[in-house]
Each structure stands twice: as structure tokens, then as C-alpha cells.
Amino acid sequence: MTMPFYKNAEHDRIGAEFAVIAVRAGAAIMAVYQTDFVTRMKADDTPVTLADQRAEELIVPALQALLPGVPVISEEAWDATQPAPAPRGPFVLVDPLDGTREFVARNGEFTVNIALISDESPIAGCVYAPAIGELYYAGQRAWYGGQPPGPDFDVARVQPIEARPLPQRGAIALASRSHRDPATDAFLATVPHLRIESVGSSLKFCRIAAGRADLYARFGPTMEWDVAAGHAILQAAGGSVLAPDGATFKYGKFANGLRNGPFIARGRDVTT
């Protein structure tokens, strides 16, 4: 089968379609969130709930209809013991509920993540936080809108966003609320005049994309579906996600089980 090639002009349309799907998935998640749900632990010692399952059951068929022939790689269907072969073209990464620990803690900082990957890079993505009504999506440009969960995505609510250059004083670094590690803390200690705030899930990328923060460093383990959607949004907003040595942060690491190495997400480069 010949895999599709997406022109730049299509990226915004795909990002908006991802938003439609994510908002519907958000409604399914919130229906579980409002109950006394049960949490179980997966083999990799991470939590999962009925909300993860229901969101995935909605998202995957919708993506298959939107992008026929494009493989959809979703966290809950991923078998680390028998990983899928690498696709020969574009593919979609899905985390139906990023920040399950935040979901279980009921702090609202969990998201639906969807990203389209082509040539090892994210070219469109959506991050939706249904409990707090924050919707971010991107193709060539990045967009934000307040959006309650439900059957309809209201495009009239969205507006373009841009990352800001790193300020000389008062820069804000975002750190994982549930996954801080010594290597990340050591890096942040090297940046002068830095205020550190904790935020859950992929919202860290989005807050930088919206010009509300400046840095997000992660040296601990992540999976590609944890990062790709936020990367797409930050990149479209003028920011970057790079390895600590400045190398390109790539996707499609199937031989490595889709596990990521360390990365640093930043706002806009002052020279651009």
C-alpha cells in the first residue's frame, strides 16, 4: 500500500480534526472521572483506568476513518514484549489519557494526546485537558481555546499562540508533578534566575507554546506518545524540543520500543 504524503497546507486541517476527536474522547474520560473508578497497575508499574480504555476505543476508529491506511500506535494497545514493525510512512501516536496519575489524584492535569508523525518528526498534534477545558492543537500554526468536553469542537473559541523568548530574569521552568528526577533538577540548577513550577502531563509543552513558561527539561524515561503531541504544538508556536546536546529529537524508534531519551523543550529562540 502506498502511504500518503501530507502537504504543509494539510497540517492545520489535520490538527483541527484531531481536536474534534480529542474533545469527544474528553467527554468519555470525564464520564469516568465523575465516578468511583477503579485503578489497576499494568505490567510496567503504571496505572490504568476505564477512562484510558474508553478514550482509546473512541479515538482509534476515528483516526482510522480520518487517515485511512495510516497506522495508529496507541499506548493501551502497545505490547512492549511484541512491538509492532516500523511503519514505512506516516503514523499516528496516541496517548488516550496522558497523566493517569494526575487523573487518579483528581487534580485535573491530564490530557488526551494525538500526533501525526512523518519523517521522524511531528507534523500535526492535539493536546486536550478536559477537566480544565484547555485545548491546544497545531499544524503549521499553534492554536489554543477554552473548550468544555462534549460532542462538538467549537472552532470559534480558538486563537493562535506563540512561544516567547527566554527572559533574562523571571524565566519559568515546568517540571513533572509526578516524575521529578535528580538529572533534571541538576540541569535546572544551571539556569540562573529560574522559577520552577510543577505541572502534570503534556500541559508543560503547551504552557510554553502559549508563552506562559519557558523551559521543560526531562531526563527521566518517557514514551513517544507522551511527548509527540506537545512537541508538535510547541514547534508550531516557534519553540523547540531537542536532545540535551542540541541534536534533533526524533520519533519512530521502534527498535527501541518507542522509548525516548532525555530532551529539553524551550520557547522561542531570541535569534529567530
Radius of gyration, in Å, reads: 17 Å
Largest sheet: 7 strands, mixed
- CATH level 1 name of the largest domain: Alpha Beta
Strand order of the largest sheet: 3-4-5-6-7-8-9
What is the distance, rounded to the nearest whole angstrom, between the alpha carbons of the first and last residues? 40 Å
The shape, in one word, is: globular
Q: Any idea of the CATH topology of the largest domain?
A: Fructose-1,6-Bisphosphatase, Chain A, domain 1
Uncertain stretches of 5 or more adjacent residues: none
CATH architecture of the largest domain: 2-Layer Sandwich
DSSP helix fraction: 25-40%
Beta-strand content bin = 25-35%
How many individual β-strands?
A: 14
Q: N-to-C SSE series? A: HEEHEEHEEEEEEHEHEHEE
Total number of distinct structural domains = 2
**At the fourth CATH level, what is the homologous superfamily of the largest domain?**
Fructose-1,6-Bisphosphatase, subunit A, domain 1
Mean of pLDDT: 90
Q: Could you say which structural class the secondary elements and strand pairing correspond to?
A: alpha+beta
- Count the helices. How many? 6
Structure, explained:
The structure is a single chain. The protein is 28% helix and 25% strand. With 272 residues, it is of the alpha+beta class. The chain folds into two domains: 8-160, Fructose-1,6-Bisphosphatase, subunit A, domain 1 (Fructose-1,6-Bisphosphatase, Chain A, domain 1); 171-266, 3-Layer(aba) Sandwich (D-Maltodextrin-Binding Protein, domain 2), CATH 3.40.190.80. It has a seven-stranded mixed β-sheet with strand order 3-4-5-6-7-8-9. Strands 12-14-13 form a three-stranded antiparallel β-sheet, with helices on both faces. A two-stranded antiparallel ribbon has the order 1-2. Helix 5 (203-209) runs parallel beside helix 6 (224-236). The chain starts with 7 loop residues before the first helix and ends in a 6-residue tail after the last strand.
